[in-house]
Design a protein that fits this description.
The protein has six helices and three strands, in the order αβββααααα. It has about 160 residues and is mainly alpha-helical. It has a three-stranded antiparallel beta sheet with strand order 1-2-3. The termini are far apart.
């Protein structure tokens, strides 16, 4: 091997080292960004209020209800069953808002990756399906149909 060949190889090794260092820097920055995102998501909440103002619910990042507030007039305006339905509808609305917030926060990462789990393992649910807001969600309303059962209001009976 000539001195010129050795010098050329050293130059190539230095170029590769610089590329690896750059990739490590990018990986560390993305890891930090993901950790920050996880922390922001973990602290996030979403709330919803019924149209008549009788019920307010707050959900955490997982969509689990963390707070329910009932107005003083809620017991007089609604039957117990209707109030339960209104609480559930309000919590569902808050959970959908939380899902939308998480999708918005994770969008830069999911768009950057451009690959999802079903691309690698066919048939499994991917981040796109999990994080996208569900179409056709019903807005929270008051108590106008409080006497209808859940099955009837869904068209099942």
């Amino acid at each position: 091997m000539s001195a010129a060949d050795v010098g050329s190889m050293r130059g190539q090794v230095e170029v590769l080292r610089a590329q690896i260092d750059s990739m490590q820097d990018v990986l560390l920055e993305r890891t930090r960004s993901l950790a920050d995102l996880q922390e922001r998501i973990a602290r996030s909440t979403a709330s919803a209020r019924s149209s008549d103002g009788c019920v307010e619910t707050v959900v955490g990042a997982s969509g689990a209800v963390v707070e329910v507030t009932l107005s003083g007039s809620s017991y007089g305006k609604h039957s117990p069953a209707a109030l339960g339905t209104l609480i559930l509808a309000t919590a569902t609305s808050a959970a959908e808002d939380m899902r939308r917030q998480v999708a918005e926060m994770t969008k830069p990462f999911t768009e950057a990756a451009r690959i999802d789990l079903p691309d690698l393992v066919p048939g499994v649910l991917g981040l796109r399906e999990i994080l996208e807001p569900r179409p056709g969600s019903t807005p929270v309303t008051g108590d106008e149909n409080w006497d209808r059962t859940v099955l009837r209001s869904s068209g099942n009976v």
